[in-house]
Structure formats: structure tokens, C-alpha cells
Amino acid sequence: MAETSHKEVNKKLQDEVTRCAKDFYYFCPTYLRIVDKNGRLVPLELNAVQRRFLSELEINPWVYVLKARQLGLTTILAAYNFWKAAFTPNHHVAVIAHRTDSAQTIFEIYKRFYDHLPDFLTFPTDKANVRELRFFHGGLVRVMTAQSEGIRGTTYHSLHCSEFAFWGDVEKSTRAAFQTAGPNACIALETTANGLNHAHALWHSEEHGFHKVFFPWTEEEKYRRKEKNKTTYPKLNLIAKEYELDQRQINWAQHTLATKCMGNWNSFLQEYPLSAEQAFITSGERFFDCAFPHAQSAEGHRLYETPQKFRVYSIGVDVASGTPSGDYSSFCVMDVTDKKEPKVMSTYYGHIAPHAFGKLVIEEAKKYNALVVVESNSYGLAVLEYLIQNEYAFIFRRNQYDKIGNRWIEKMGFHTSTSTRPVMLSRLLEHVSKKWLIINDERMKCEINSFVYDEKGKPIAAHGKHDDMIFAHGLALMGLDQIEYVKEEIQSERPQNINEMLTWERNTGQVYKNETGDSHFEMYGVASSQSSPLDAALNDSSKRR
After folding, report:
1. Topology (CATH) of 300-485
2. Residue 239 phi/psi, 5° resolution?
3. pLDDT digits (tens, 9 = 90+) for 458-511
4. DSSP characters over 283-317
5. Beta strands in 15-61 (DSSP E)
6. What CATH number was assigned to the domain covering residues 2-215?
């Protein structure tokens, strides 16, 4: 009798194991445990967001999930992958996080799943260390960072890239991760937005096989509140109408804005976006306060406006080595006649050797009679030397103290240092923020999107991105400090005819006066000394009518 009962028990347990192996939706809430926000150990009951994610995963095993924070997607992915590794022989799972502490937190989720299984489901493990769980039947869970070398050398059947938008070099790191995926692997890219980096480009690309899914905060049922908040935010009312938020959602948003985001609207949208573009644009510690989501970069010369006589130009020049995989050599020609309204006239962006780039620079500079502001650092010296050898007239100069000679000496070129770099970037930021300078170059737009603060607060290009056009624009603006002597020489040129006189007045915004101080030319018979040639011409025209 006891033997029969024992067999019955074993049969029930075997049936239970079989059911768990076949039905994740049964196994998950029945046997997996998580720690809730109150610190209690509770069953993992799937919410609406988690269920939708799993349904999306069934549509396409390659899924790119962009989300608001704290929706439980990392947890449900861990549960699903744990189930696969525990019940499927030789199923290898790789979880790649952006930081060491994040990797440890995720592994603790897996370890908690295992530690709280009932005895009959506690599968013997071959190896279990800090971030690895290996079952005797070959199932494997390995959690690592994007910088880890451990990802290489193993083929994975499930790949979870957690917060991949925050990986050091997103493009390079994701490419390396994909190389480890088996032919029929399940790949989940899961992240909150981090500015307009490669994760943003991947989201808009149609050249990959990922099924793209966005989860706004409104899909989380817990993000609702009965009580109204005392502080109201006018912007929220507009958002509420656009996205059809109900009153409880509005109450929660107001409360969260006031308590967790300190009233900072951009901070709220970064953490809790309502659309994919909203997530990308408001996220990331970007240097500039503008964004160009659809900007595309390409090499080559771009002409926006041809030079005009009597106007004053500055050309900022950033020089690179010319290697195909290195930085770009770039220049930006600006009309700086009006210091508060500079205008981009032409740009260049490409991989080109310094000596060849020097020829392009001097050709463009001569075309515009521009003040050349070239870095005197590194490869910029080659271009600077080329300008000097060709006796180009307008070159940015600086005073430098000679400690040996105990005197000030004049040097050619702009020297970028820890003291001058912030000044240049601050000037550029002011002109862009106040819209004194209109950004019309696509290469510049791309670089603005990915110019961010590093961990030390220094503005730099994001990993894998460039800032060469940014510095070309910045150098052109630094020319404002020395543009007066160029302006004086260019605008002192005597107009040769009435048309040039009119052009001079239009382009300088001043009344032309001849050498005697009169605002007319005797040879044209314009007698009034109180009016400009333009005024006289207009008066004469009206008389003839």
C-alpha cells in the first residue's frame, strides 16, 4: 500500500515537472519568487506589460524593447530565460548588462528563482558562482557586462541585452554580442533611451530583423493615483489631451513630477516617456539643448551660400590624421559680419590627409577672404604651415608668454587647452541655444545629437561618435575675437561703381562715405550729403515717375 502511494506521489511529481516544462505561464506564478517593493518574497504574477512582452516575443524571437522605467521587463525576461535553461538540455543563456552592479542585481534574480524552488524542481547544478548557473543537463545562465571578455567562445540560444543603450560603444558591443548568438537564437534588446546614439539609429533602421516594441508608462496599471496633487503643471494638461490620459494617470504624473523629478519636466519624460521619439530626445546627458532625430551624416563638401563682396567671413578648421577609421577633418565657413547672427556658408567633412586638406582649406579661405581659425594642436600644425608658406593674409593669432625670454610672443593658430576648450564650447552653446546660429549642416546635427557629458562632466562625443564638425563650428565662432582687422581691410575697399556702392551699404548695414566724409560720389552726380547713394537713387527714381 505504501509502495503504491509512493508510486502515486512520484507520478504526480513527474506530471508536475512535465507541466512546468511545457507551460511557462503556469510555472512562473506557481514556483518563481521575487521581492516586491515592500521587501516581501512573493510569487511572480505576470502583469499586463509582461504578458504583452511575451506575446511580442512569440511574434518574432528578435525583439527590440524600448520602455519607461520599472515596468518589470528585466524580471520577466529573467524568468523566461531561467525556465528555458532549467528545462531545456544544453540551452545557454547570456545576459549582458551595462554595469557591474546591474549584472550582479540581475544574477540575484536568477539565484532567487533557483533558491526558492521546491525540492522536486531543484535541479542539481554543476557550477554556480557569482554570475553563472550551470545545470547538469547542460543548461547555462551566464550574466556579464558589455565590457566582459567572457561572452566570447560560447554559442548562446537566448541573449538578453539589458539597457544596451548605455553600453560604452553601443554599435561595437552589440555587434560582438550578436556574433555569439546561435542560428535560431532568441535575442531581446531591452533598454530605456539614452539620447540619440546608436540605439536610436537602430530603432529607426529597417535593415535588421528586430521586432520593435515601445512600452510607455501608461501601460503599467500601478501608475495611477486617486488623490490629486496640490501642484499642477500646465504642460501635463497638454500631454494629457494628446495621449488621452485619465484622471488617475494625471494624478500619478503630477505626484511623480513633484516628488521624484523635483518638478523637472524633462527629467519626468526621460524616466517615463509616452512615445519613442519623446524617450530618445529627452534622455541622455546631452550638451546641447536641441536635437535632430532624423539627421544623417555623409562625407564631402556642402555649399549653402556663395560669398558676397564686403561681407566678412571666418573659417574654423579641425584637422585629423586622415586615416579611414579615425576622426574627420572638417571646416566650417561662417558669415560673421553681424556677430549676433552668424550664418553657415559652407562645410567640409571627410577622411583626408592633412596636406591635401590644407589645399582645400586655402582654396575655400581665398574664395571667402575668410579669417582662418585652425587648431595649432597636432595635425593642425600641418595645415597652419601650409597657410603660412602660401602667405595667406588672414590667420588667427594669439599671444603666448615665453617664460625663457620673459616676454609675450605672437603665435599663429588657436590652441585648444583645458582653459580655451570650455570657452569655445560655451560660445557655441550660447549661439545655438539662443538661435543666433541656425544649424543647417546634417553632419553638425548628427554630432549635436551625440555630444554628451562624460562621467567627469566633460562634454565629449559619445563612444563611437565624432565631434569634428562641432569644433569646426566652434573655431569659426572664436574668430569673432579677431574679425575686426579683417573687417576693416575688406570693407575699406573702395566701391568701383554705383552697384558696388549699394552692395557695400546693404552688406555692411552702414552709410557709405567717401574719403572727404561725404556720403556720395561726385562722379555719379549724387549731390546730397545727408543721404546714401541708395537713398539718392531711390529719390531720383521717384522724381522720374
Report:
1. Nucleotidyltransferase; domain 5 (3.30.420)
2. -65, -40
3. 889 987 889 999 999 999 999 998 888 787 777 667 777 777 777 777 777 777
4. -S-BSSS---TT-----EEEE-----TT--EEEEE
5. 33-35, 41-43
6. 3.40.50.300
